[in-house]
Known about the structure:
By secondary structure, this protein is α+β, with helices and mostly antiparallel strands. It contains 25 helices and 27 strands.
Amino acid sequence: MAIAAEDVWLEKVIPITEGFAVEEVVLDSDLRVIGSDVTIQITSKDDRLTVRLPFGSHTRTFLQEVGRCRPEAVGSEGVKQNGKKLMVGQNRSHDSTDRSAPRQTKLKPEVTTEMVRSSSVMVSNKASILSEPKFGLRDTIVKSQLVQMEDSYTHIQSFRFFVGTYNVNGQSPRESLQPWLRCDAEPPDIYCVGFQELDLSKEAFFFNDTPKEEEWFKAVTDSLHPDAKYAKVKLVRLVGIMLLLYVRADLALNISEVEIETVGTGIMGRMGNKGGVAIRFKFHNTSVCVVNSHLAAHMEEYERRNQDFKDICSRMQFCQLDPNLPPLTISKHDVILWLGDLNYRLEELDVAKVKQLVDEKAFVELCQYDQLKRQMNANAAFEGFTEGEISFQPTYKYDAGCDDWDTSEKCRVPAWCDRILWKGQNVAQLSYRSHMALKISDHKPVSSVFDIGVKVVNEELYRKAFEEIVRSLDKLENANIPSVTLSQREFHFEDVKYMQLQVEKFTIRNGPVPCQFEFISKPDEETYCKEWLIANPSKGFLLSDAEITIELEVFVNKSTATHLNSGEEKLEDILVLHLNRGKDYFLSVTGNYLPSCFGSPIHTLCYMREPIQDMSAESIRKLTLMPVEMSDDDVGAEKPMDIPKELWMMVDHLYRNASQQEDLFQQPGLRSEFEQIRDCLDKGMHDTLLGSNHSVAEALLLFLESLPEPVICYRLYSSCLESASNYPLSSQIISNLPGCHRNVFEYLMAFLRELLKNSGKNHLDVNILASTFGGLLLRPPPGHPTPDITEKRKAQQFIRQFLLREDNLR
């Protein structure tokens, strides 16, 4: 798994002095599979520390930086790998690092543990023009032109990929996976195995921690085809969504540039109970991205599923080996394999009719009512993807332990929730089937076997192409200074709204000299643009006479809304586009922001009796800049409302319409409906909020998250954690809140207690609500370290006390 900021903390500083060493080791306790995460032993004069780091670019960069920082610096031993010392800056691949010579093939007699790790520079980097972490303009030009000439030195060779998906409904692997994973006589070359709902516990949901990862990893490893030896390349997990990648051990040297990413699309756009995980890699000279996703549930939520798919595609970005190049998205791969519980259902048919058609094996007719097929035909989701013919019965929903359809009170309509799709050339599907023999879940696993044509390099032809490029580059080396033409230099974003993306595009057209471009920061500024703006891509490379489209994206969120509401910040910025060895170009970006209740302080909203967009900019500014603790007399205005009217509208809507709503505060709403709700609150257009209960619930959470001062003020954060198990003391802390904040806290607690009275219908419990609201009402102050699991539990416990009591706190 990737390491996030909240997973680490500073406990001890080990100085990089004489005697300092870093060595990659293989512990006796490590699973004997190739490509497992990197175990590092750090030693100094007084300390020895063993840590495990995830395989990928971040770990590689860390080790290189450590190597550079050694006292010996240039010419030092650097970082050891499996006991072998590596020179600082040494290429960790098996490629030649000679600046002028192309790659030399080195055959190994046996597969070793470092093969997957060390084949990090293969494909378009075969030339090894510069040693690894150097990525100059010359190197970039060579690599780019090698990619353009790829057909001249590669041929297509087929390899067999097994792709499997299984929603295990929180169960442990109590039965063999062999009927699923080794159902063919011929062993596959690569396994891509995905799971959903690996763990349904609250611990997994809120803290992303589960023992079932190891259980299912072992079950898969033990069930792989017996006629081949496999190496684990990578494992990635987000809550209950897990993806495993294995390769035949004799092919391990051909895997390179392995990266992983995760995207949560659950409530508030980040909870990991829904979303996707992905592994991208190069196999020979073909880039492959494997995505495992679990999309939104319920029959009527097909639009939300479409949105989840688009969010995963837009937010999933992989670091490239060359830091001068922008991140890779899913679509930038030669082959994409997408698997998972996509949750699309069969619509317009009742349970009896669906079962009848299944009994008749009328799958072609049944597919006409499949939501995924309909959405793909309408280009609403999975555009450009292909799915094979479905010749197996729906994989959901069964009674656990047997093959009977759902006999519960809900009696779900059977559906093909579990799917496998692909995109790319030279892909032939050999099989697409379900596996009825596995019975522990309410889903059946699905598998597909593909023959995928992979681009394999001919070394002799590659050398010729490389030498041709270098000769032509030598002639161009001292050519003219690079220059470009921009299609537009001034951009205005009209009526920007909270959390509503606006995009403007322009093109950069290059002249005759290849160039690298990058948006650079202005003097005395740390970043190249304001926080609400981004250029995509922000840097890149252009060959002679090439053209690229740049997207300027304006997006106002909780971190920028408050200052824009108050007028302290405006939508104004100057971008500096810099050409390496060339001139700078200046772009003007302006816009107007429509103020919103999202990002406004509680006490400010309590003084606003009219919708915020009906007020003058000066009135908004004065109220937004007003101190939280200011008394009513100091304001000199009419008495404030007890709570913000916007908060009341959302809570009242949920109280009247959603008290019994299943999965409230756990299932996200639609972005389009959030925008309607936001406009309604900001403009006072309607007495009733538009949108589903889930959309209103998510809007409430986003509102609380956007508050610049949380409901429980920052200054009381530590006191609240200390009193998390002392209700009288906790009550005293709440009583000391500013009046508006105290009113909001009591109002929300009363509402949540009402929801708990309907837990039999809405399936909420005190722990779900305490965890969901604990991180919103009680937030660490700016500059405080990211809360660890212990802090998160204390925040949950603090809120939990008030959900279990109905005392009057005053």
